[in-house]
Amino acid sequence: MNERVTTNHYAYRGPLGEVVRDGVFFFASRDGFPMGIYNTFEEAMASLAWKGRVKAAGYSLFTGDCQQQAGKAVRS
User: Within a 13 Å sphere around the CA of 8, how many CA atoms are in the beta-carbon half?
Assistant: First the structure.
C-alpha cells in the first residue's frame, strides 16, 4: 500500500489563469479548462500568456485570419 500523501500547490493564480504544481509537473488551466501539463513553471506560464494573447487578438485558432466582430467572422 502506498502511504505517499500528495498535495497540490498553486504556483500562480491570476488574470492569465492558474498554474498548479503537483509533484514534479505543473498543470495550467484557464477559466476552469485544462490547458496542458508542463515540466517547468516557465513553460506553463508561457502557455497561458500565449493563449491569452491569441484570445485577446480575436484570431481563430483554425484559420488564423478571422476576427470576431458583432458575433460574425470577418476576413481581415
Answer: 9
Is pTM beyond 0.85? Reply is no
> How far is CA 7 from each of CA 4, 21, 30, rounded to the nearest angstrom?
10, 9, 20
Per-residue confidence (pLDDT) for residue 8, from 0 to 100: 72
Which are the contacts of 28, defined by CB distance < 8 A and separation ≥ 6?
A: 17, 18, 19, 34, 35, 36, 37, 38, 44, 45, 47, 48
Whether the pLDDT of residue 45 is over 70: the answer is yes
User: What nine digits make up the cell of 33?
Assistant: 479548462
The domain ranges of the chain are: 8-75
Residue 23 is given by DSSP the state: T
